[in-house]
């Protein structure tokens, strides 16, 4: 039995090495690669991914899983061994259900769609994309058919990013949240608009990079097992538990982009750096779901990084780094500026109160598309109507509307968005539990110390890697099911004061 288990782990480690090598090539593509390298790089990444897929779908993996689950069936659920068998079984079954030639067909179609999108978006030309999107929808529905009995067509997509959730559970959460968020957005909208012009002054790039590094180092991002590079669309990338990198984009005329983007990515990276070393080289050595991952980036970015206490500690150092734009600015003015709430057209630029409305719109529209209740031809109008209803804004063109996000134009339709809102909701529930266990956390944040908070997150979330589903992590860490109450309590405690509600 031990021999078979070792063989499985050896095979999984090889798959992991191939995947990590592909990840490293992708990281390089988006940070340092000269433009001329693009064609060969696409081929190289494709080769590694194909080899990894072949190794994962090898029948031998299936046989090993069958044998081992019989002999090791009575191991405790939470043990590393039982978790490895459980998660590998899930990945093996997902990978073997979808035929290889279908995967190639999707890859070819989505790469063509992405190329059309980059031009059509600039030209506001939805009509040019319509036939591509119609094909994407057709392929998405075919993908869903490989998972019969899974409920709605969007469910297999949700399984891939937020395993254990379903259209029904996500929709129920979203409805509940929307009913409370829309009135809050309207109440804030009736108040005088916050002034954030101090953030739009000139902030030299070198000083922004240095300050961002100083902040995330203090939060606990480990530069001995990580590094930061510049890119166009920031992300975090893991090659092993001991090499998790972050990327950032600096805008010299808007401080928030680089600063909060850096904190956000360090949250993703600290999660992956915090996974137990024993899980290295296995499918358990990463974050467990899109939602839990986003809960960590948003917790550090918003609940910590946009809190008043955090800036009571860091604002003097920020002023020292940027004497020209910030020398005459008070902490209070700065705190109000970084927490300005205003309806806007673009999801990635939205504040934390309106952000979820952007996500819900996308989730509801892709669910309607997959359920046959909405045609691609009617998508732009449906988008604009929902923007008007929820945020009181009508996009002046499709570039600032339906064409803004890469998700539907670089993959299949479905499951790409709910993780953002699940993450926001989880972030407040985790933070509330950490604070209940350690009431000293707010005072520590005010003093620039984050070890207690990071220690609680490591103990309850990070070290487990992908052993438990999102639902299990939430219940184990907080003693309760995922609920919107802690999130709404957080938003009200902060924004009722900021906007005199
Ligand atoms: Zn993120």
User: Order of SSEs, N→C?
Assistant: HHHHHHHHHEEEHHHHHHHHHHHH
Q: Give, in spatial order, the strands making up the sheet with the most strands.
A: 1-3-2
Low-confidence stretches: none
Please state roughly what percent of the residues sit in beta strands, choosing from under 5%, 5-15%, 15-25%, 25-35%, 35-45% or over 45%: under 5%
Task: Write down the overall mean pLDDT.
Answer: 96
- Distance from first to last alpha carbon: 64 Å
Identify the bound ligands. Answer: zinc ion
What is the gyration radius calculated from CA atoms? 23 Å
**Discrete helix count:** 21
CATH level 1 class label of the largest domain:
Mainly Alpha
**Major β-sheet profile:** 3 strands, mixed
Would you kindly provide a brief summary of this structure?
With 501 residues, the protein is mostly helical. It has helices at residues 2-29, 38-56, 59-71, 80-97, 100-122, 126-145, 155-161, 167-189, 205-219, 255-273, 290-304, 308-321, 323-326, 331-338, 355-370, 379-391, 418-437, 441-446, 451-460, 470-478, 485-498; strands at residues 228-230, 236-240, 243-248.
Please explain how this structure is put together:
This protein has 501 residues and is mainly alpha-helical. The protein folds into 2 domains: 148 residues, no CATH class; 332 residues, Neurolysin, domain 3, CATH 1.10.1370. Helix content is 63%, strand content 3%. The chain contains 21 helices and 3 strands. Strands 1-3-2 form a 3-stranded mixed β-sheet. A hairpin with a 2-residue loop joins strand 2 and strand 3. Helix 1 crosses helix 3, helix 3 runs antiparallel to helix 4 and helix 15 crosses helix 17. The longest helix has 28 residues. The radius of gyration is 23 Å and the shape is globular. Bound molecules: zinc ion (ZN). The site of zinc ion has 4 residues, from helix 10 and helix 11.
């Amino acid at each position: 039995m031990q021999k078979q288990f070792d063989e499985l782990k050896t095979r999984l480690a090889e798959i992991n090495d191939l995947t990590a090598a592909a990840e490293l090539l992708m990281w390089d593509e988006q940070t340092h690669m000269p433009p001329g390298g693009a064609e060969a790089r696409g081929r190289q990444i494709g080769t590694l991914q194909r080899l990894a897929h072949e190794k994962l779908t090898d029948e031998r993996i299936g046989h090993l899983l069958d044998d081992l689950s019989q002999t090791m069936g009575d191991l405790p659920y939470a043990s590393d061994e039982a978790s490895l068998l459980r998660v590998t079984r899930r990945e093996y079954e997902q990978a073997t259900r979808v035929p290889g030639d279908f995967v190639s067909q999707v890859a070819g179609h989505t790469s063509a769609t992405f190329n059309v999108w980059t031009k059509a978006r600039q030209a506001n030309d939805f009509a040019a994309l319509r036939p591509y999107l119609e094909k994407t929808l057709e392929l998405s529905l075919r993908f869903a058919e490989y998972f019969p009995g899974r409920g709605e067509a969007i469910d297999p997509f949700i399984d891939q990013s937020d395993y254990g959730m379903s259209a029904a559970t996500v929709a129920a959460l979203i409805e509940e949240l929307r009913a409370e968020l829309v009135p809050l957005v309207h109440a804030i909208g009736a108040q005088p608009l916050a002034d954030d012009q101090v953030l739009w002054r000139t902030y030299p790039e070198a000083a922004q990079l240095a300050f961002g590094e100083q902040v995330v180092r203090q939060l606990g991002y480990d530069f001995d097992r990580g590094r930061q590079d510049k890119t166009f669309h920031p992300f975090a990338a893991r090659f092993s538990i001991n090499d998790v990198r972050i990327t950032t984009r600096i805008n010299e005329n808007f401080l928030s982009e680089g600063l909060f983007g850096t904190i956000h990515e360090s949250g993703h990276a600290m999660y992956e750096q915090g996974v137990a070393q024993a899980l290295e080289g296995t499918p358990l050595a990463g974050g467990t779901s899109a939602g839990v991952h986003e809960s960590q980036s948003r917790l550090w970015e918003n609940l910590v990084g946009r809190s008043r206490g955090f800036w009571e500690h860091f604002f003097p150092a920020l002023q020292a780094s940027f004497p020209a734009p910030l020398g005459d600015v008070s902490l209070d003015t700065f705190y109000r500026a970084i927490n300005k709430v205003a309806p806007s057209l673009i999801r990635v630029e939205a504040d934390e109160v309106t952000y979820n409305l952007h996500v819900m719109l996308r989730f509801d529209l892709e669910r309607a598309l997959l359920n046959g209740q909405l045609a691609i031809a009617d998508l732009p109008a449906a988008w604009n109507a929902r923007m008007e209803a929820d945020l009181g804004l009508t996009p002046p063109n499709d570039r600032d509307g339906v064409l803004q996000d890469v998700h539907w134009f670089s993959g299949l339709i479905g499951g790409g968005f709910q993780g953002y809102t699940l993450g926001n909701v989880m972030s407040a529930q985790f933070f509330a539990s950490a604070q209940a266990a350690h009431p000293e956390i707010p005072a520590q944040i005010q003093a620039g110390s984050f070890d207690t908070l990071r220690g609680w997150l490591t103990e309850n979330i990070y070290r487990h890697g992908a052993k438990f589903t999102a639902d299990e992590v939430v219940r184990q860490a907080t003693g309760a099911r995922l609920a919107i109450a802690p999130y709404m309590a957080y938003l009200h405690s902060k924004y009722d004061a900021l906007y005199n509600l």
